């Protein structure tokens, strides 16, 4: 085993290049920025937290990291200090305009390894530079799941993901079959990756402090995709239908999707799944079998 690269996230390293609470507030005041609930903005103000995120994400010196919602740049700077390149996707006009200058001021020797995409992440289909190998982000709470799934779909080169989301969302993403919070996000995330909780984040590391706790979720892309002849869209349609009426048996819940309860039962039997089962008990592979059984 080769010697590890020097850890660029050592806790005793000076934090002069990172943003602390005073830096965040001063920068926000200069820009006339106030975090908005509309965009789910809560800025990380703790250097130890961003260093922890980079460490848990196992960011490597050869990684090309994409970050969604960089805000004022707290996590961006820590990522840029550890990765080969960072591409940040920011929708806010003011924040997008200011971030390159913050990077240049704080990490001038790394500024040429940074790129900004001023866009809604849900509309991003391509990124500048080499394909991203990792996604690391403090995702806005109100769009966390759709943004995560969009990025995993559009950028299959992303091997590893670590996102900070609302704690309840983290639980849903990482839940397995039979768990009471297992649902659509759980199954769809598992289509792409092995998913697990990777830690908790307190409220006091944010400005403003949110009314909910946050959690870290790790997603490692499957080395082998789910084996199925059905398309992702076909599988996801079954998942959506099954959980739209999650209290009902699959025979009833999938009736509209299949055309009738009888056709739903026939598809379930063909897939080797009990018509009396509920969606919350099925794995992503079993949902794929149902989709296969009715592939048109």
Salient structural properties:
296 residues, alpha/beta, seven-stranded mixed β-sheet, two-stranded antiparallel sheet, 12 helices, 38% helix, disordered N terminus
If you had to describe this structure to a student in words, what would you say it looks like?
The chain has helices at residues 21-31, 47-56, 74-82, 93-106, 144-154, 167-174, 184-192, 232-244, 250-253, 255-258, 261-270, 284-293; strands at residues 43-44, 64-68, 85-90, 114-118, 134-138, 160-166, 193-201, 206-207, 214-221. Strands 4-3-2-5-6-9-7 form a 7-stranded mixed beta sheet, with helices on both faces. Residues 1-14 have low confidence and may be disordered. α5 links the parallel β5 (134-138) and β6 (160-166). The longest helix is centred in the middle third of the chain and has 14 residues, at 93-106. α5 (144-154) runs parallel beside α7, α7 runs antiparallel to α8 and α8 packs across α12. It is 38% helix and 17% strand. The relative contact order is 0.10. It is built from 12 helices and 9 strands. It is an alpha/beta fold and 296 residues long.
Uncertain parts: 1-14
Structural class determined from secondary elements: alpha/beta
User: What's the shape?
Assistant: elongated
The share of residues in extended strands comes to 15-25%
Distance between the first and last residues' Cα = 50 Å
Count helical runs: 12
What order do the SSEs take from the amino end to the carboxyl end, as H and E? HEHEHEHEEHEHHEEEHHHHH
């Amino acid at each position: 085993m080769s010697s590890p690269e020097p850890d660029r996230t050592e806790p005793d390293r000076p934090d002069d290049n990172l943003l602390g609470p005073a830096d965040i507030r001063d920068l926000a005041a200069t820009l006339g920025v106030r975090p908005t609930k509309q965009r789910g903005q809560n800025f990380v103000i703790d250097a130890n937290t961003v260093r922890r995120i980079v460490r848990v994400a196992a960011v490597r010196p050869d990684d090309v990291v994409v970050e969604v919602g960089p805000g004022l740049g707290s996590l961006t700077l820590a990522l840029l200090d550890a990765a080969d390149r960072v591409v940040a996707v920011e929708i806010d006009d003011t924040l997008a305009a200011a971030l390159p200058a913050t990077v240049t001021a704080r990490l001038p020797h790394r500024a040429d390894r940074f790129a900004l995409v001023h866009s809604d992440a849900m509309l991003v289909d391509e990124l500048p530079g080499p394909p991203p190998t990792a996604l690391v982000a403090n995702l806005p709470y109100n769009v966390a799941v759709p943004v995560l799934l969009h990025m995993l779909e559009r950028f299959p080169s992303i091997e590893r993901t670590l996102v900070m989301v609302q704690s309840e969302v983290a639980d849903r993403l990482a839940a397995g079959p039979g768990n009471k919070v297992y649902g659509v996000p759980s199954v769809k995330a598992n289509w792409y990756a092995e998913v697990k909780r990777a830690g908790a984040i307190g409220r006091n590391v944010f400005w403003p402090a949110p009314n909910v706790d946050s959690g870290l979720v790790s997603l490692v892309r499957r080395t082998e995709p789910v084996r199925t002849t059905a398309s992702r869209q076909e599988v996801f349609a079954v998942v959506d239908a099954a959980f739209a009426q999650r209290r009902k048996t699959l025979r009833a819940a999938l009736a509209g999707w299949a055309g009738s309860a009888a056709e739903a039962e026939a598809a379930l039997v063909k897939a080797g799944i009990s018509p009396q089962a509920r969606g919350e008990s099925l794995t992503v592979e079993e949902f794929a079998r149902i989709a296969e059984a009715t592939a048109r």
